[in-house]
Amino acid sequence: MKKIDKEKKLTVLGRETVFDGFLKFTEDLHIQGAFSGAIDAQGALLIEKGAVCKTQYIRAASIIIEGTVYGSLTAADKIEMKTGSIVHGDVHAARIKIADGVSFEGAVYMLRDNAGIDGNLFSMHPEQLKQKLRS
């Protein structure tokens, strides 16, 4: 796992945590439990092994998946799916890494230097973002 910058704040939703709703954050978040809803973030997101996320969408600077995700994923930088992870949904990112042993069902859309994204990615409504990515 990558080193954590001590200057950054890290939030952890623990293994016994069940969260249903909308999450918005600016620093790093690790999800170890269950999450359903939507995530709109400027920081990095790690979905740990054993975690299950059922989302409308996830938007973050970068996303690393070790657990299970159902829903659309968009990262300004990269999305990484680690061995054993399960992803059901479309992914949009400048860089995508899919390890051996990943169960992935969805489409991949590569973003080039944030091409097709005007303004702040994190302030767009999901439908606006979809339109931008399709054009």
From TrEMBL:
Domain of life according to the entry: Bacteria
Pfam families hit by this protein: Bactofilin
This protein's name: Polymer-forming cytoskeletal
Protein family: Belongs to the bactofilin family.
InterPro entries cross-referenced by the UniProt entry: BacA/B
